[in-house]
Design goal:
The protein is built from ten helices and two strands, in the order ααααββαααααα. It is mainly α. Helix 1 (22-38) packs parallel to helix 10 (243-265) and helix 7 (153-183) crosses helix 9 (201-224). It is flat, with a radius of gyration of 22 Å.
């Protein structure tokens, strides 16, 4: 379960999606997330899913690898599904005891589950097809206009990228701690959900210690290399918008127009 989380991981490749400018990918991802919230019916979701499927095919990231990232949040999706199914009132389809399932509640439950799945897959594609250093450069470039208002663009971009980059590292540490405790007789798999949750509590202390140790090592390494955001820096690989980036923007603009038109006309 721990290794199934794909958020923050980079999948090496040389596809057209991998070669896009990171600024373009960040903006397209943000607009895609907005478009998911604009959708109000299943036809719009079908268009969004179709566009996402095309991007996955072009990126050449295995679909099994992407879908694996949905396993850790299955509980969240199931919880959202159940809450919407039972809490929304309407035309009753099934009723038992004090619970009832309405047609509107079932529709909203499926609606929200699809929305969550599309959001997670769409967000994961950004980190799967973008190197961490490129992601940092892209975020800094997009935030740089706000420097005149005192926003530390470089520091903010670096913090967000480090947070994403260390998600897989902390997951590996968690996996190591769990295996070490299982070798000493700990049981994380038997019992109900509450018992499993209680069994995970002893993992938190060594995990926090390990996280602070990694953070301290990183800070010392950056300090030893005289790293700072105030000094002027040069880049080995400068970012430049080229024809494929413009083509990607035009294609996504057409996709976004389809979503908006579908929302208005239907």
């Amino acid at each position: 379960m721990i290794r199934d989380i794909t958020l923050g991981q980079f999948y090496p490749g040389n596809s057209w999606i991998h070669r896009l400018d990171p600024r373009v990918k960040i903006m397209v991802t943000l607009l895609y997330i907005v478009s998911i919230f604009v959708v109000k019916d299943f036809i719009g979701f079908a268009l969004a899913a179709l566009g996402l499927a095309v991007v996955i095919a072009i990126s050449r990231v295995p679909l099994k690898f992407i879908l694996r990232g949905l396993k850790p949040i299955f509980i969240l999706i199931a919880f959202t599904f159940i809450i919407n199914m039972f809490m929304i009132k309407g035309e009753v389809l099934v009723s038992f005891w004090i619970f009832s399932i309405s047609r509107e509640g079932l529709r909203m439950a499926v609606f929200m589950a699809i929305r969550l799945i599309l959001l997670i897959i769409g967000s994961s594609l950004l980190t799967l097809t973008t190197k961490p250093i490129s992601l940092t450069d892209g975020m800094e470039a997009l935030l740089s206009p706000f420097k005149r208002f005192g926003l530390p663009a470089h520091d903010l971009a670096m913090m967000m990228t480090i947070a994403l980059r260390f998600i897989p590292t902390l997951l590996e540490e968690t996996d190591k701690i769990m295996k070490a405790q299982m070798a000493r007789g700990a049981d994380f798999e038997s019992g109900n959900i509450l018992r499993r949750a209680k069994a995970l509590i002893p993992i938190l202390v060594p995990l926090f210690i390990s996280a602070f140790r990694i953070a301290q090592d990183l800070a010392m390494a950056m300090e030893a290399r005289c790293y700072g955001s105030n000094s002027k820096k040069t880049r080995m690989n400068g970012m430049k918008i080229c024809s494929r980036d413009i083509a990607a923007c035009l294609i996504f603009a057409a996709f976004l127009a389809m979503i908006i038109l579908e929302r208005i006309l239907l």
